[in-house]
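User: My instructor asked us to take a sequence, write out its structure as C-alpha cells, and then describe one feature of it. I'm not sure where to start. Here is the sequence I was given:
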Amino acid sequence: MPLKEVDTRLLRALSEYRAFVSALAIETGQRSLIRDIILSEPSTTSAKIMKAVGISAEELVKIYRDLQTDEEFQLAVNSPYYSRRLMFNVARTVVHDLASDSDYTQRLISGDPVSSRVVELHTTKGTCNYNCVMCLWSDKGERTYDTAQMKGFGLMQTEEWKNTLATIREFGTKVAVFSGGGEVLLNKDFFRLLAFSHSVGLKTQLYTSGYNMTHLEEEEWGELLNMDRIRFSIHSSNEGTYNDIVSMPEHAHALTKVDNNLKLLLEKRNIVGSDLKIGIGFVIQPLNTMQVEDIVEFAKRTGVDYLNIRRDEILVTNPLDQESEVELRKQLLRIRQNIVNGVYGNLEIDFSDNLVAFMNEEKYLLPQVPQCVIKHFRPTINPYGLWNSCDLKGEPMYADPDFVIGDLHQDGVVKILARTQQTTIPAACTSCMPSGQTGNAIFTKLLQDHALGIDFKDQPFF
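Assistant: Let's start with the prediction itself. The C-alpha cells for your sequence are:
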C-alpha cells in the first residue's frame, strides 16, 4: 500500500482514537481498547489501563509485548499524522536506556546519586551577538543575570567545567548539550571543553546561531566534526526578516555569514565522512509565520539532515492572529503532504506534537503530573555554575531561586546529584516547554509502572 494511502487511513483512525483491528480473534476487544488508550495518551499509567479494561498486570504485559511487533500499531505511532509521535519516541529512548543498564536504573530508583543521561550546559560568558525577539535567555534589559541576581560566585572557569564534565560522565551522563545562556561560540574556551568532553567519552550536541564560525581554526572545525549533532538557529531564509528577528543591522550580512558557515560545515563533514548530524531549528512567530515553507526549501537546498519546526511555545512574542493561524495551518498541511509524497528526500522534518495536533484540528492536552521530574532527564547548568532543574529556570527570563538545586562553586557535582534525588519540585509552572511537559508525563508513567512491577523492556515502547 502506498505511504500516502497508509497515512490517510491512519489519520482517520487516529481522529476517532481507534487502532486497526487486530488480526487475532482472541483478546480482540482488550487489544483494541488498550491500543486506543495508548494511541490517545501514551503516558496513561498501567494502573489506570488495568482498571479501565479490567485485566491483570500479567495480561497487560502480554498485550504490551504484542504491540511491540504489531506492524500497524508501529505505522500509527511513526506517522506524521500522529500527535503523540515525539512523546512515543521519548518513551522509546528512555525504556531502551533504562533496560540496558540495570545498575544505573537501580541507583536512580533507589535514590542514590546519579547524573541525568543528558545534561544541558551553558558554557558561555553570558553574552550574545544577537538580541532575538523570541529569545528564552535574556532581553538584555530588565531580565538579565544581573537583575535576576544569578551571578553568585562568578563565571565558571574552564577547569571547573572540565571537572563537572568528568564527574557527570562518571555518574551516568551520556550526552552533553552545549546551549543557551548566550552564544556558546563566543567563548573560545568552548573548544577545550569540547575536546575534553570527547576524551571522557561524552557524546556532544551544540545549539548555535552559526554567526561566529567565520574565523574558526582547522583544529576547531575538527572538534565540531567530532560532535553528534549541531543545530543552527535560523528563523527565516529572508535576509530582512532574519535581521528583524535577531536584531542585526543590514550591513552585517548576518544571514549570508550563517548560510556560508553552514555550507562550509556540511562540506567539511562530507569530505571527512563524519557522522555529525547537522540541522536547523525554526521557531514560528509573527515575523516569520508566512515563511515556514520557505525555510523547508532552504533546508532542502542546503542539504542539512534535519529541520525542527516549533512554535514560540511560551509566547515570548505576541500570539498569532486568527488569519495568521489559518495561513500557518495551510502551510503545515502542504509540508506534511509533501513529506508523505517524498518531496523532500532525506530531509527529516520534525514537527512538535502540538503542531501536529494543530494540523489535525485536535485539542492538545497533556495530563498534569504532581511532580516535575525534568531534573532527572535534562537539568541545566548556567554560566555561573547554578544547577537548575530545567533550561527555562537556568536563564534570566524565567529564573526562580526555588528551582536552583545547587551551586557548583560551593557544592560540587556529587553533593548536587544527591540533593537532586532529595528535592521535590512541583509541576506547577505557568511557563513550561511542551517538551518538558511531555517528558514529565512519560517519565512519570514509566517510573510508576516500574513500581507496579512492569519492566521497562515490557513496555509497548520497547
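For the description part of your assignment, you could build on this observation: The domain at 114-360 is CATH 3.20.20.70 (TIM Barrel). Try explaining in your own words what that tells you about the chain.
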